Amino acid sequence: MIRMKRLLSTILLLSVLPLSLDSARADVIVQRTPDEGLQPRMVQDADGIIHLLYFKKRLNRPAAREGNLYYRQYDAEQQRFGSPVKVSSQAFAMQTFSIARAAVDVDGEGRIHVMWYMPRESEFNYTRSNPERSQFEPLRSMVSQYAKGIDAGGEVAARGSEVAIIWGAGDLSREYERTMFARFSHDWGATFGDEIMISNPDLGACACCSMAADYMDAQNILVAYRSAIDGIGRHMQLLTVNGVDGEISGASYGDVHELQQWELSACPLSTNDIGTDPAAEKWLVFETKGRIMQFNLSVAGEPAAVGEPFSETRQKNPAIAFNQNNNRLIVWGEAISHARGGRLNLKIFDAAGNDTGYELGEEISIDNYSFPAAAGLPNGDFLVLY
Question: What integer is the mean pLDDT of 153-159?
Answer without folding.
Answer: 96
